[in-house]
Design a protein that fits this description.
The structure holds two protein chains of two kinds.
Chain A (H helix, E strand, L loop, with lengths): L4 E3 L1 H15 L6 E7 L8 E3 L3 E4 L2 E4 L1 H14 L1 E9 L8 H5 L9 E5 L13 E5 L5 E3 L2 H4 E3 L1
Parallel strand pairs in A: 1-10, 6-7
Antiparallel strand pairs in A: 2-3, 2-6, 4-5, 7-8, 8-9
Chain B lengths: L9 H48 E8 L2 E8 L4 H12 L8 E5 L2 E2 L18 E4 L3 E2 L2
Antiparallel strand pairs in B: 1-2, 3-4, 3-5
The chains are: A alpha+beta, B alpha+beta.
């Protein structure tokens, strides 16, 4: 718990690029930030899951998820953050709470406002973390994430 | 050698008889040895069949979750739910276990099925993953 993750600025730019190209200001979009189990606090890969989406939400493709789950095991990587956009305000909805890709203490979910069309960064973003009892609790971004 | 009256001398006949008896004893011993070898081979085959049957009833599967892989011993009569519970404990704490299921060949396995009924075989990889991943404002 309370891990401070390191993220290269280029990966944050890649994340926003996916939001803008895939969501295009019309649909929500999600990316995942992965780290290896050897260096669990260093984000090493940005993954853009196959999904279907609309203005009010997204659902990951089931077949893609199976393949991705195998790939994670083969590459010894784990998912540290799920990052997704909202049309306007960033917050964690009930759906966000109930259907994360990982549900274990310390897992982080970052929500980016305005479909990610704003400046690349964390302005008005919302970060929340799963607690030991399974509940989500807001965390400050600087306490969990440092750009390198 | 033959006597004038055409009879074989008694000593030669005895010698032949002894030789025949000796040959017979050797043949009997060989037969016993062959029977022992057959018995040993049958015993080995039975043991191999027993081991194979045991392996078919009790074997190892692999379960990955979030990039970590763990192995689990299962018995064919166990249920999928029992294996799921073992996996949830091994990867835990996982505070929302009801959102997770085991998947084989892309399909979610039904909890009440036995390992046999679910078609799970030795060394199968069963994914522990959420049934649905979604989000929305």
């Amino acid at each position: 718990m309370n891990t401070l993750y390191r993220l290269e600025r280029g990966m944050l730019e890649e994340t926003f690029r996916h939001f803008r190209e895939c969501g295009a200001g019309r649909e929500e979009c999600q990316v995942l930030w992965l780290a290896s189990w050897e260096k669990p606090d260093v984000i090493a890969k940005v993954v853009h899951p196959k999904h279907i989406a609309g203005r009010g939400g997204f659902v990951l493709d089931d077949r893609w998820l199976n393949d991705f789950w195998m790939e994670l095991g083969d590459t010894n990587m784990g998912i540290r953050f799920q990052v997704h956009t909202h049309p306007t305000e960033a917050f964690h909805s009930q759906t966000d709470d109930d259907y994360p890709i990982i549900h274990k203490p310390g897992f982080l979910s970052l929500v980016i406002p305005d479909f990610g069309l704003g400046p690349v960064g964390f302005k008005d973003a919302y970060l929340t973390e799963i607690q030991a009892d399974g509940r989500w609790q807001e965390a400050t971004i600087p306490s969990r994430l440092v750009l390198t | 050698m033959t006597l004038e009256n055409g009879e074989t001398p008694p000593n030669d006949g005895l010698a032949h008889l002894h030789k025949a008896e000796h040959d017979l004893e050797k043949a009997i011993e060989k037969e016993r040895e062959a029977e022992r070898e057959i018995a040993n081979a049958e015993s080995e085959i039975k043991e191999a069949i027993r081991e194979e049957e045991e392996e078919a009833r009790h074997f190892t599967v692999e379960v990955p979750y979030d990039g970590a892989r763990k192995k689990f011993e299962v018995r064919v009569e166990e249920t999928v739910k029992q294996l799921l519970d073992k996996a949830l404990i091994a990867f835990g704490p996982l505070p929302a276990p009801h959102t997770l299921a085991l998947f084989k060949d892309g399909k979610e396995l039904s909890d009440p099925l036995t390992i046999k009924e679910a078609g799970i075989k030795p060394h199968d990889v069963l994914l522990l993953r959420p049934s649905t991943v979604k989000g929305g404002a």
